[in-house]
Amino acid sequence: YFVLDFEAGILQYFVNEQSKHQKPRGALSLSGAIVSLSDEAPHMLVVYSANGEMYKLRAADAKEKQFWVTQLRACAKYHMEMNSKMMSQVEGQQKNLVHAIESLPGSGPLTALDQDLLLLKATSAATLSCLGECLSLLQQSVHQASQPSHKPVASENILGWHGPKSHSAEQMKNGTLGSLPSASANITWAILPNSAEEEPTLRPEPEPSSAPELVLSEDEKSDNEDKEETELGVMEDQRSIILHLISQLKLGMDLTKVVLPTFILEKRSLLEMYADFMAHPDLLLAVTAGATPEERVLCFVEYYLTAFHEGRKGALAKKPYNPIIGETFHCSWEVPKDKVQPRRTAAPSPPDGLECSGADDSSKGYKLRFVAEQVSHHPPISCFYCECKERRLCVCAHVWTKSKFMGMSVGVSMIGEGVLRLLEHGEEYVFTLPSAYARSILTIPWVELGGKVNINCAKTGYSATVIFHTKPFYGGKVHRVTAEVKHNPTNTIVCKAHGEWNGTLEFTYNNGETKVIDTTTLPVYPKRIRPLDKQGPMESRNLWREVTRYLRLGDIDSATEQKRRLEEKQRVEERKRENLRTPWKPKYFTQEGDGWVYFNPLWKAH
């Protein structure tokens, strides 16, 4: 027997009508609940609460069923709107709190920069953001209530179905307002690429036609830079600076022009970070060794899933230098030919007369060349291109990093796409990139990836969907990723994968075979890069060399001063271009439609 307490927004469950004045067997908050019809039994309706519980009710007839559906939906909507009004009141109170703190004197026993008050401002902003996100999700759920229902899934929270003989309009005198579901707010914040300081431009505009092919590879040497960032928590004196910065930010704020403290920098440019995603060039070149289109798409998906862990230097979340417009980064990798082969277990043999291109003379290695350039300041767009002429493979990508403050967290969207071209087969694989999220800047900052990305090859009809899962509020694992590879013409799933993008990945193929890749044991090929004295003034390591040197010494003040000088020089050059109305012309890339392409790509040279 059920009683709807409209004022309290609660659906109460009793054993029978006679026991309705006793303590209810159960109660369901209707704020944000979804009420759906069900064909599981005649005159059945199902109430899904926002916290995941579900009640099944069966009315005596169709008229009674419709009455209950109408009343339950009206109650859910009413209390949803009440919660929205409450949110508005809470937002006003939080603004008053911030105003009261900022109105305190600049000196004395209690100031606006008091650490506890800064933490209070930051925590209240994060709590408000979390509640706002919960309310938004609930409101989205309400819109689904009018859609046709499907059969409810089994749940441990089912209390069974019970049909009231009559409806009750009783209202409990001491009803409480249906509240938002409790959620654990992850009070975190951190920094990721291009979420920071304003960095104008420098250097006269070169003509694209004057650019060298890539770099003089004979000058390159194996990279011996530091492999890991120092994994320390935030120092107390740094915590005050971060708290003060957080307290000035607004939810949803674009962080592109926010000047961030120097101590959170990572000692490498974002352009070099993109190169570090290529740390397993043997897996990338192995794509060309696939004997069939299915083999090749599977090899590429395996490479894609293993590419991200090396791009993050250790577990610490720090921000790479924002590339300056015109900044470039060059490097290459050398891969022994016997290391380039399909990674799939029990790979099929090539058809008669077709020699696997990876089985040629192993006395020489393959060379994979890489160049990246910052081609735009507003919006901040980076391009990179890499090629292996011997394997007739190249990758070209453009990425616009857009960051947003999310209330003690920072999200960075990687807008754009890349294209892998296999010239031997005339195949193009278009792929996108996941978003990144930084957490826990006030303790031990860490990075996670999130979002759905796609890989598509129009010629072969193969596609892949990859989902990077963010950690839920309650429980759950970090760094999870799942993937599915599909042959669209036949609607056949040829492979599924799951695991951690920085740990172990398991692949299951449609023939029943399985394969496990541990990213932590994969060989990492060091970059080959020219020494600083051989680099041009706009190449990343040479450009940021003084900032990097002082960061390594732990001299934050000197690093900040060097960074300030660099930025001021860039501003002067930018103002000159504005006065002359001279547009910037990138050195290595040209814009084509909404995308960017390398000025002398391999597919045009063959």
Question: How are the SSEs placed, and which strands pair?
Answer:
Layout: E1 2-5, E2 10-13, E3 26-29, E4 34-38, E5 44-48, E6 54-58, H1 62-102, H2 115-143, E7 161-162, E8 221-222, H3 236-248, E9 265-269, H4 270-276, H5 281-285, H6 293-306, H7 308-311, E10 319-321, E11 328-336, E12 365-376, E13 381-388, E14 393-405, E15 410-422, E16 427-431, E17 435-439, E18 446-457, E19 462-469, E20 480-487, E21 492-500, E22 504-509, E23 514-518, E24 528-529, H8 540-543, H9 545-553, H10 556-580, E25 589-592, E26 595-598, H11 602-605
Parallel strand pairs: 6-7, 9-10
Antiparallel strand pairs: 1-2, 2-3, 4-5, 5-6, 8-24, 11-12, 12-13, 13-14, 14-15, 15-16, 15-17, 16-18, 17-18, 18-19, 19-20, 20-21, 21-22, 22-23, 25-26
GO biological process, one term: lipid metabolic process
Subunit structure: Interacts with OSBPL9. Interacts with DIAPH1.
Main location: cytoplasm
Please characterize this protein's 3D structure.
With 606 residues, the chain is of the alpha+beta class. 26% of the residues lie in helices and 27% in strands. The protein contains 11 helices and 26 strands. The strands form 6 sheets. Strands 11, 12, 13, 14, 15, 16, 17, 18, 19, 20, 21, 22 and 23 form a 13-stranded antiparallel sheet that branches. It has a 4-stranded mixed sheet with strand order 4-5-6-7, covered by helices on one side. Strand 1 (2-5) and strand 2 (10-13) form a beta hairpin. Helix 2 (115-143) crosses helix 3. The protein is globular and about 90 Å long. Residues 143-214, 228-238 and 344-362 have low confidence and may be disordered. It is found in: Cytoplasm, Cytoskeleton. Residues 197-233, 341-360 are annotated as: Disordered. It comes from Microcebus murinus (Gray mouse lemur). InterPro entries: OSBP_sf, Oxysterol-bd, Oxysterol-bd_CS, PH-like_dom_sf, PH_8, PH_domain.
